[in-house]
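Tutorial, part two.
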Amino acid sequence: MRALTEGDRPRAPAAVVLVGRGPVVAVEEAAGWAVRYEAYDERTDTAVELPPGSRVPATPHTPFDLASLTKLFTAVAAVQQLERGTLGIDAKVAAYLPDFTGAAEHGLTVRHLLTHTSGLRPELPLYACPSAARLEMLRAEAPTVPPGTAYAYSDLNLLLLQHVLERLTGRGLDALVRDGITYPLGMTATGFGPCPAAAATEDQRRPWAKADRGMLRGEVHDENAWSLGGVAGHAGLFSTARDLAVFCRTLLAGGSYGPARILGPDFVELMLTPPGLGFALDQPWFMGGLAGRGAAGHTGFTGTSLVLDRATDTFLILLTNAVHPRRRDPINPARAAAGTRVARAVRGA
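Running the prediction step on this input gives:
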């Protein structure tokens, strides 16, 4: 892990890794700087470092921008509605959102959204539109291929699902996540921003980014989530490794943690059974040796990842701010290497 954070140009300024098996935390380490840079200088392609006394070290308690790990919480919130019988897995999106004409005309279902088989594009430039036009753009968006015919990862799936949940319940996604997941589980460090104590992310400026916002800390990195006020189905949550460990333990235990139950075992099984509802399954490119035998998880653009190894009751959390001070190549080799090290320890592989 320190190889990620050390050197003049580290792959990630900060990293926190937590590995647990059952109720036991086996590894919990932090390295590097949650805040290391003042800016990025595009003329010299170098990071402008803060004076040593102004930097902020990473600790096991540092919150990180989870980026697309937010999708897992949106998925759980949706499956909670499935369990209650208020949402149908094969129900048409139009049954809940008749004004979303693109989804209605092409027969998109809740299952399509949760399995990334809707045929929708990966994203829309909502951040570039006037606020009044963003919802209209999302309402009109139609699939580019017939729904149900191919897997194509898309932020739009979870954005539509957010609107389904909010229309269905009359409550915002932030309230659904808080009251249905984080509060009952005691995840007090998890929530939508702002989060002033979080690790810094990007000196966000064009042309490498999609908006000119300067150095970000405690505000959501994803430009679309930012344009939507920081609460979005695909991005926006901040959390710590310890809080995510509770989330992982809960799912590995069939939906319960201590006296709290957020899902029944049958619905956790539904969520983690191929093709997976919101979760990626058995993906070696970021799970490394943990892939196979039903491993589930996800990654986030900022440099985060989470893996559940159901075969050994083990979980791996890696939180980094790899986009600080600007986005570069993904840290997938480091993610996979961490998964392989854990697999060798618990599987003897």
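The chain has two domains: 2-68+189-347, 73-175. In part three we will examine how such features are distributed along the chain.
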